[in-house]
Amino acid sequence: MTRRGDTLIEVMLSISIFAVVALLTINLMNGGINTAQRTLEVAMARNEIDAQAEALRFIHHSYVAERQMNSDESNFKYIWESIIKKANKPSSLEHVDNVNDDGRNSFDINNIDNCSAAYLNPTSTTTDAGHLSYFNSFILNTRMVLPQKVDSYMGTSYADLVNNEVAVLYKNNSTKFSATSLYPRIIYKKDGSSASGTTDNIGMNQGETIDNLYNRIATAEGVWIDVAGNKGDNGTNISRSDYYDFYIRTCWEGAGMNVPTTLTTVVRLYNPEVLE
Prior knowledge:
The chain is built from three helices and ten strands, in the order ααβββαβββββββ. Strand 9 and strand 10 form a beta hairpin. By secondary structure, it is an alpha+beta fold. The protein has a three-stranded mixed beta sheet with strand order 5-7-6. The chain has a three-stranded antiparallel beta sheet with strand order 8-9-10, covered by helices on one side. A two-stranded antiparallel sheet has the order 1-4. It has one domain. The radius of gyration is 26 Å and the shape is elongated. It starts with 7 loop residues before the first helix and ends in a 6-residue tail after the last strand.
């Protein structure tokens, strides 16, 4: 009985079929992993957006609720006034990034090659101020939205705390804003004010309390807020706007994507000073 083996052509055909099936399987697996990664990134970005939106609503609602009080007794008046001072009136409120007033170049966050293009050094000679909306973009420290019950907090005046820690302005704190390599997030740092170098068994330095741990913003990566009022021109009379639109923006390099991923949520809050 004669036994016949596989020919070279049959072997090569089998290897080719196996290679094609393996490549298709790997591509499908990579696609599934990328999809799962993007879904997770979007969820994390949404969590950050929701936190900022809730903080904005909390500040606004608290301020409105205190309108019947004397101005010196209002606990959220200063924070509210601080964030609306950052408002601009762009040429189009519906598309706050397309800014052409005063010779500014047009900038559209949905048409950029990378998220780093949104971040420029805010110098007095910079004219392309559409980036990060005239540099008046800011971020809220949701761990430090405190009522004004005292003139200072942990040795910092309340005004300085609001301007530098609660409503962090890009123009004044550009080093705290950057593009992200992962997903939009706010990284908090520990406020180290220890009387000694020893630590206890839960990681706090002696003399510290739990509320002063990790409550300062180290960096806001790929997330910021632009605010636009419907009156005034680039800040002039902006306090008399009927409403303010807060554009909570995120930008990051999504897994398996050739272009940046962006998400924006708009929160409209009405001005109680105008609309009684």
